Amino acid sequence: MTLNKDKTLPLILAIVISSTIVWSGINPAFPEVWIAEIVPIFLIFLPLLITYRHFRFSNAAYLFMSCWLLLHTIGAHYTFANVPFEWFSELIGSERNHFDRFAHFSIGFYAYPIAEYLSRKGHCSPFLAGLFGLCAIMAIAAGYEIIEWWYAVLAGGEAGIEFLGSQGDIWDAQQDMLADTLGAITSLVFFFFNKPYRTHKNA
To answer: pTM for the whole thing?
Structure first.
């Protein structure tokens, strides 16, 4: 059975994500930070569940979207600066916890479902759909950095610092946005290779 024909994959992913959300909410490092971090998860996950019967994305799109949902939920439990990720820091010889970079990179993967939806619905050509997906991710990345700044200022103290997660890096926001953009480009390469607008009927 090919990846795209496996109808059980979205269900399996939904179960894994739901279980991770439940685990994440059990004794999180900073409950107030967990609430702030988990809100975006529900804003993405719940609409995907509700609209599944009306528009079913390709399995590749669901896999891409699941990456961020899982990584962000894990980060919400520990806070991104404190996720047990020392092995990677040691591997590259860095003192910084780079787990948040991977999470930001995975945000870029949402360019794939954006482009898939637009192209399958016939709203524009695949090229323009991909370009819109890239620009949308870049805009979302910038907007999220502003939201992080606002929360850090309003919350203040240790909770604000943990939510911001800059770890003393003055270029943290710019590097996060770069990671988002690179993730988007990576997913769009797969988009043009897989051509879901040809292999899936409009829905």
So the answer is: 0.83
Angle at 107 between CA 59 and CA 1, to 5 degrees: 15
Task: Find the angle CA(111)-CA(115)-CA(118) to the nearest 5 degrees.
Answer: 140
Q: For residue 160, which of 10, 14, 71, 36 has the smallest C-alpha distance? A: 36
What letter represents residue 30's amino acid? F
Residues 176 and 75: beta-carbon distance below 8 Å: no
Average of per-residue pLDDT across 135-146: 89
Residues 91-121: tens digit of each pLDDT: 776 667 778 888 899 999 999 999 999 999 9
Euclidean distance between CA atoms 191 and 1, whole angstroms: 21
Binning pLDDT at 50, 70 and 90, where does residue 130 land? very high
Question: Residue 190's CB: how many other CB atoms inside 10 A?
Answer: 16
